[in-house]
Amino acid sequence: MDIALPTSMQTTFADALARTRDALAKNGFGVLTEIDMKATLKAKLGEDMEDYVILGACNPPLAHRAVTLDRQIGLLLPCNVVVRADPDDAATVIVEAMNPQLLVEVTGEPALRAVADEVTAKLQAAIDSLHTKVPKT
């Protein structure tokens, strides 16, 4: 099983990040956390890396259903979505959402399958929408 629902975009990092946030919102996800790995690693370790942001995305109704089925599932929430510059191609930004099917695999809780399927469909729709042309205003 793949751990990610991936795509890549030929755009700037700032545009990819903004479009990813918008795509998540349009599919019922709020961004609860944001970790700027580039800034954090530079500040804490003095290390340089490409643009890399982790968004902690949550769909409250689906998170509630999952936590109701398995209280420990909170250890795996929110769903992480990574927006990162491709270190091998400066014109490409990679967007990867955590594969929600991992929730079922990690916990072994078959009752989570329906929730994971719904989260997968919504995250995949968000990822797929990143390839839709955005009208210029």
Mean pLDDT: 93
CATH architecture: 2-Layer Sandwich
Strand content: 25-35%
Radius of gyration, whole Å: 16 Å
- Which sequence of SSEs, written as H and E, runs from N to C? EHEHEHEEHH
Report the total helices: 5
Question: Can you summarize this structure?
Answer:
It contains 5 helices and 5 strands, in the order βαβαβαββαα. The protein is α+β, with helices and mostly antiparallel strands. The longest helix has 17 residues, at 113-129.
Q: What order do the helices and strands come in, and which of them pair?
A:
Blueprint: E1 4-10, H1 13-26, E2 30-36, H2 37-45, E3 52-58, H3 60-69, E4 79-85, E5 92-98, H4 101-107, H5 113-129
Helix pairs in contact: 1-5, 4-5
Describe this structure in words.
There is one protein chain. It is globular, with a radius of gyration of 16 Å. It is built from 5 helices and 5 strands, in the order βαβαβαββαα. A 5-stranded antiparallel sheet has the order 1-5-4-3-2. It has helices at about 15-25, 35-45, 60-70, 100-105, 115-130, and strands at about 5-10, 30-35, 50-60, 80-85, 90-100. The model has no long low-confidence stretch (mean pLDDT about 95). The protein has about 140 residues and is α+β, with helices and mostly antiparallel strands. It has one domain: 2-Layer Sandwich (TATA-Binding Protein).
